[in-house]
């Protein structure tokens, strides 16, 4: 079984708003928020060359759809990437790139979980949502429905956080995007606007190598759809 999984997956290759001159309150954020951590720090680049390992209660293969389905307390790892969900579907395109979708069981109070280290700094990106899509070709993670993404200093200190209906993390360019939606509406936020908490960058740790990363707006909104 381990040899089969290795063969199947060996090829599987936070936040700053686009904002006015002053940051203002989180409630003043636009319906779409963009963030980049700059060119000196990205998702861990070695992850793309690592095999994907999956632990689950069950595994089935859908030959018609060319999808391998893992269910029951699924834990998928690929280098520093970690996905936890009730179900993870994995498929591969003709070029060998792999795509994983993690979802929770209907009615579950828990959310699917994503975690990845940023290269060159002692920082991590983690997120939760009802659905998590990982695109191995683009190194793009899309968190859909009740999505939250955090930038962590070390493993525990939350530096930035964004909450929205759909949040994407572009690991190649280190961009975040967030979109509003009715699923995150509630008291004080009836239209489901994006909400964010952003720490001052001068309090952030310096990269392990090179100069401190500079923030710039993302050039475009990504993750406009799901797998």
Automatic annotation (TrEMBL):
Residue intervals of the Organic solvent tolerance-like N-terminal domain: 53-173
Key words, A-Z: Periplasm, Signal, Transport
Principal subcellular localization: periplasm
Protein location: Periplasm
Gene Ontology BP terms: Gram-negative-bacterium-type cell outer membrane assembly; lipopolysaccharide transport
Gene Ontology molecular functions: glycolipid transfer activity; lipopolysaccharide binding
Subunit note: Component of the lipopolysaccharide transport and assembly complex.
PANTHER family: LIPOPOLYSACCHARIDE EXPORT SYSTEM PROTEIN LPTA
Annotated protein name in UniProt: Lipopolysaccharide export system protein LptA
Species assigned in the record: Trinickia dabaoshanensis
GN (gene name): lptA
């Amino acid at each position: 079984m381990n040899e089969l999984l290795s063969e199947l997956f060996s090829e599987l290759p936070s936040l700053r708003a686009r904002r006015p001159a002053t940051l203002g309150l989180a409630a003043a954020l636009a319906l779409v928020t963009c963030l980049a951590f700059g060119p000196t720090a990205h998702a861990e680049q070695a992850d793309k060359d690592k095999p994907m390992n999956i632990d689950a209660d069950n595994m089935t293969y859908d030959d018609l759809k060319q999808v391998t389905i893992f269910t029951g307390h699924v834990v998928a790892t690929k280098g520093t990437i970690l996905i936890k969900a009730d179900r993870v579907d994995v498929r591969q395109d003709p070029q060998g790139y792999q795509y994983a979708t993690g979802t929770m069981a209907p009615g579950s109070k828990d959310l699917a979980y994503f975690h990845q280290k940023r290269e060159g700094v002692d920082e991590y990106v983690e997120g939760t949502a009802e659905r998590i899509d990982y695109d191995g070709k683009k190194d793009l993670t899309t968190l859909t429905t009740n999505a939250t993404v955090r930038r962590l200093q070390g493993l525990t200190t939350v530096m930035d956080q964004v909450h929205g209906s759909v949040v994407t993390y572009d690991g190649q360019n280190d961009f975040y995007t967030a979109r509003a939606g009715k699923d995150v509406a509630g008291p004080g936020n009836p239209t489901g606007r994006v909400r964010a908490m952003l720490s001052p960058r001068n309090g952030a740790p310096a990269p392990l190598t090179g100069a401190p990363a500079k923030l710039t707006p993302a050039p475009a909104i990504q993750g406009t759809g799901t797998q």
